UniProtKB/TrEMBL annotation:
Residues 139-160 are annotated as: Disordered. This is Uncharacterized protein. The lineage of its organism: Bacteria, Bacillati, Bacillota, Clostridia, Eubacteriales. Residues 149-160 have a biased composition (Basic and acidic residues). It comes from Dysosmobacter welbionis. Residues 139-148 have a biased composition (Acidic residues).
Amino acid sequence: MTEFVLGSYRLEVDVEATRAWYGRYGNATGGCGCAYCRNYAAAVGVLPPEAAAFLEPLGLNLRRPGDIGEYGPRQGGRWYMPMWHIAGRLLEAGEGELPVAPGVTAGFATDMGPFLRNFPEPCFQCWLSMTLPWVLEEPADEAADDRDDEVKTLDRRTEP
Ligand SMILES: [Zn+2]
């Protein structure tokens, strides 16, 4: 276990177990093929390098989230909140968002789903908040007709 103090958050992380799970199961879209997840995979490279560097010591990869939340238009792009499960414990739940890079903030929680197949227990979650451009040829609004991302992700991660 490795202890991290990030702002007012204090974490105890099994970095190797976390990294091993994502190495085995993670991919750029969290197992979901919807337009929002494909756009995340295509656009996330525009973020400053600090975003990936924040996650890396925790055993997490910006391109391999456990789940991707998308919350509509913001600042000329789309508002995304990807999340990752982390093996270990949230020792102190801080308050507010941690600044990670210009336009990117982070936080930790213990109650964010979906819960992932074979993920080591105990675990908690890390989320990032960011605005990404829409880079797919297909329009975002059409993709909104088929919004069952969470169910798809949950299904793919929980079935054996
Ligand atoms: Zn999706």
